[in-house]
Amino acid sequence: MDGRGYSKYIKSMGVELEGGINASGYRDCETHYRTDLIDEKFQMGTDGTATVSGVEKSGLEWRYWDFNLNDFDDLFGFVEYCFDKGFKTSTDCGFHMHLRFKDMEKFVTMFSYPSFQKKFVSRYVKEFGKDKRFLDRLDATYSIAEWSPQILEMQLNQMGSARRTAINLGAYSKHRTLEIRLFPGPISKEEALNDIKWVIKNVDEIIDEIDNGEQSIFKLNLKKLGEFVNMDDGEKDEEPISIQVNFDSYKKDFETSTTIVSKKTPLIKDMSQFMYKQIEDYMCEIIKKNTGEDPRTW
To answer: Is the whole-model pTM more than 0.90?
Structure first.
């Protein structure tokens, strides 16, 4: 990552701010981003679960999308402006980010790799494990760190509430994005900006680390949608697509789901042989190093 918002792979990016703000701040944001509201780059919606205290307008869900290829200064500016005007986020709902790539088929497949998801979560714990707010997101209702062929198939076909995982592939069929749901609602603009920078940097680095020849846990058969690069120019989403997933040959590797959680329960539960015990030990050592506590003794 070069500067504060450059990515080698992410071509456009969006965020969801969920929470509340006082009436004057609401009006200022609405006026300042009037052009973006008309262009649907900025959407001011509501979410009844995103309640916060101490503000005049609560239960808000604001979405902002930066279509500038690779360079996300507009996104950073939006987050800064909203926090400067008094936006207060909901910790329960979290801080969600949406990513688009030119070659979406390639990166939907890559994000489905167990190795990608494990690398992402382990990096997250290493960076933020000292902060209980971040650690608790690993088993929170809206962002549980869980994956299995069944969950990924449900996500890609928009079935049930399977989207509520740390990395949500279900956003692909609905929005043509990949969604990161792991972060708690930021308590300051500095934290929010750092979270965005961290995602950009670590997604780039993990993509570089993964061998392009590594197989996904399933093979995707995606309906062709034309040139994905057009999606970065503000093109509206098409109708959700159906994705066929074939993971029969991998059943022996993924017989149960895997959940990485916080202090409330053992670090990894229902873990299949394929995921290996050393993953649990590795994660425990990271938490022990950062917090001084060994999860295996909880």
So the answer is: no
